[in-house]
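DATA SHEET
Item: assembly model
Revision: 1
Owner: S.N.
Input lines:
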Amino acid sequence: MLKDITLGQFFPGNSFIHRLDPRTKLVMLVVYIVALFVATSWISYAVMLIFLVGCILISKIPGKSIVRGMKPMVIILIFTAVLNIFMTAGETVWLHFWIITITKEGVIRAFFMVIRILMLVTGTFLLTYTTSPIALTDGLESLLSPLKKIKLPVHELSMMMCIALRFIPTLIEETDKIMSAQKARGADFETGSLIDRVKALVPILIPLFVSAFRRADELATAMECRCYHGGEGRTKMKLLRYTRWDFEAYAAGVILLCGIIILAHFGL
Amino acid sequence: MATAISVEHLNYAYPGVDNTPGVAVFADLNLTVEEGSFVAILGSNGCGKSTLAKHFNSILLPSGGKVYVCGMDTANDDLLIKIRRNVGMVFQNPDNQIVANVVEEDVAFGPENLGIASPEIRKRVDNALKQVGMYEFRAHAPHLLSGGQKQRIAIAGIIAMEPKCIVLDEPTAMLDPKGRREVMDTVLKLNREKGITVVLITHHMDEAAQAQRVVVLHKGDVAADGTPKEVFSQVELLHRIGLAAPETVELCYELRQNGLHLPLDRLDIEECAQALYAEVKA
């Protein structure tokens, strides 16, 4: 039951997008999101969609896995759509019934909102699917490093992220073991009301937390033994380096953003 | 031969919590480890084995007495990094020592902390992984490896720092027999081929028997010290402090109790069989 947690799911590959520097991809995601929010018209959305589909095709990520990743989003999408349809005031009334009014503007707005969320999530998937978690943390650390000047613990944050990612599978395995042990002693996780089932989780969480703290303590000792003393004077085995491709990607991003802004300016 | 680690009049007590008295572990312990040697430290639970190991690289500091590592005083704060890069530590649970989620990134963790240049780290990581026989797993995720493989990754992470000495605190306690053999073979190879000083803390007599020297700790003091043959032939002493001798010695000991004339220093199964054969024939 715990095996299907998808977090930072990475599809190793060798495409143009896979080989981009993680920093490029992070910046590009921000540019893409900004462009998405600037876009207001059918034409600009079409341009964004073409760009996104192009990126997916280049990355060779199977469309199936992107659709699968969308499943948890369905509720949010429906909620957004319903809210926008009923709450938007407009002039062209299509349906009026009791206190419910559906207008043309509301439907169009709901449609755009849903498309916007879908494209936003797909864009983020493209980043996590094509970048290994470690490259992602490295990229973030490098991008945020100017913030060290204002005393933001950038290295510590990326170290924490890295360790958290490293221990997710270990702790999932541990949870499975504890659950089996509790089941062997008659614990019941599957039946009963929602409250009963939540209550049944307490005897799992407590040993899990105790063990996580013990692990943390041992890991800290082991890290000290390996001369860890914070980010100062630390080097990296794999240095991040921009290639020509990264500049091409940046150029594409700038062109996209400028194009969308110009389109928006002319109200298209 | 030069001394790698020397413990002089070590006194240590774990501090008590909220006015309760602390637990005294060592009163006056003296021990030296020669450079390039392979020393096994044995002892029953709570005899201070792990506490002693933690003194070897400044995780714990003596309450009294001194611990020197390659001539450096472990109580000297300025030498901390230098001491730790010279004495690497491997612990019992491999899962709790691995920092990164890619094998080679984890091995690189130590050298990265030392501020070594990137191409040199790459070289050291590849070398270390080859020495423990895990080079082909360099791009794997550690949680998908077996216990023995993970422990070898942990050892590679230590040797990538190029230490003079490795302290292993029950590295095989959580492993299956295959994993134990893999780890022991790696440790023996490092000691013989690279001349790295090895201090192995263990519960397994057969592992201790492979060392050059065995030190038995009991209640914070050295109860026996010598070659494996010398130490393990003192079967009564071992029994008194709650340890067992290797199986071959135990067998010879039992047979001696029943009147056979067998030597007590046969650690190898073949040697033991030869001795038995000779005795039965006579």
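QC remark: The longest strand of chain A covers residues 93-97.
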